[in-house]
Write a structure and sequence with these properties.
CATH architecture of the largest domain: 3-Layer(aba) Sandwich
CATH topology of the largest domain: Rossmann fold
Order of helices and strands: EHEEHEHHEHEEHEEHEEHEHHHH
CATH superfamily of the largest domain: NAD(P)-binding Rossmann-like Domain
Structural class: alpha/beta
Distance between the termini: 57 Å
Strand order of the largest sheet: 3-2-1-4-5-6-10
Number of strands: 12
Strand content: 15-25%
Radius of gyration: 19 Å
Length: 335
């Protein structure tokens, strides 16, 4: 199988390619990435001389480029997206361009070339906030609360419309919050580690009682491999490991693993449209495709902290003042 991966120099895409290249099922993996702020060539530096791997710099918002690159492949996995909620609140325009127009361009190229499989990698945020004890399944109504989630929901709708209208063999996956190696410093866990190492305060929105379900990125990419090979076109698959924890408790766990005092946590003004809780039911992928997470939460969190401690040369160039700031709109400290 010749596989095209978009956004493969980002956090999840890079981890996916790193695992997929170990599988002889893929005769060639072509990685298309625009090399924007969340991407880094160093993420897959070890594959540069691998004859089964090819990197091509390009933007999926450019339809001519996309049509040219999709020719000759058997399957496409679309990771390419603007992904930080805070940035989408500050400026939604790049999210519309990449997440909606980009997805449309890829789908058009897939349709025109009769590609065997298209996987749209999405997020649990499309469901919006979950109530206490509630877990959304694949049939639940979508209620995105912020521009990032809305653009991801739009891309999903396009993918399913192409399946229903044109017979495109499209699948959508919705995953809970990821963590692990190579995650960009602006995200909660790496930001906490890096700021704590630098003796800086660690900001938490509001009381920090927002609840999220977390999955180790290596478990996520194994689920995606299973979907790509065994998933049914026209289906949606939730991917989660049921590791639910509040943001404050998560930060305290990271600081404890680092031997840092939780007094460095600083509560700041909450962001607009901040969903209190996300929760999804991943029974379908377990039942239909036989996938289940292999890593325990505490073990994976320890491995993640150790990776950032051992790979400072990777994140130092990325840990700019902008990346480590609390939010683009400069929240106020709570009194």
């Amino acid at each position: 199988m010749r596989l095209l991966v978009t956004g493969g120099l980002g956090f999840i895409g890079g981890n996916f390619i790193r695992r997929a290249i170990e599988d002889d099922s893929y005769s060639k993996i072509v990685n298309v990435d625009a090399l924007r702020y969340g991407s880094d060539k160093r993420n897959l530096a070890e594959l540069r001389k691998n004859p089964r791997y090819e990197f091509v710099r390009g933007d999926i918002a450019d339809p001519t480029f996309v049509r040219r690159r999709v020719r000759g492949v058997d399957a496409v996995v679309n990771f390419a997206a603007e992904s930080h909620v805070d940035r989408s609140i500050a400026d939604p325009a790049p999210f519309v361009r990449s997440n909606i127009i980009g997805a449309y361009n890829v789908l058009e190229a897939v349709r025109e070339n009769g590609i065997d499989m298209f996987v749209q990698v999405s997020t649990d945020e499309v469901y919006g906030p979950a109530g206490a004890g509630e877990a959304f399944d694949e049939g639940s109504r979508l209620r995105p609360s912020n521009p990032y989630a809305a653009t991801k929901a739009s891309a999903e709708a396009l993918a399913m419309s192409y399946h229903n209208t044109y017979g495109t063999r499209a699948i959508v996956t919705r995953c809970s919050n990821n963590f692990g190696p190579y995650q960009f410093p602006e995200k909660l866990i790496p930001k906490t580690i890096i700021r704590a190492l630098r003796g800086m305060k660690v900001p938490i929105y509001g009381k920090g009682d927002q609840s999220r379900s977390w999955i180790y990125v290596l478990d996520h990419v194994e689920a995606l491999k299973r979907v790509l090979l065994k998933g049914r076109p026209g289906e949606v698959y939730n991917i989660a490991a049921w590791n639910e924890v509040t943001n404050l408790r998560l930060v305290e766990k990271v600081l404890s693993l680092m031997g840092k005092d939780k007094d460095i946590v600083e509560h700041v003004e909450d962001r607009p449209g901040h969903d209190r809780r996300y929760s999804i039911d991943a029974s379908k992928i377990r039942r239909d495709l036989g996938w289940s997470p292999e890593h325990g939460f505490d073990e994976a969190l320890r491995e993640t902290v150790d990776w950032y401690l051992d790979n400072r040369s990777w994140w130092r160039p990325l840990a700019t003042k902008s990346a480590l700031h609390e939010a683009p709109w400069k929240p106020r400290r709570r009194r």
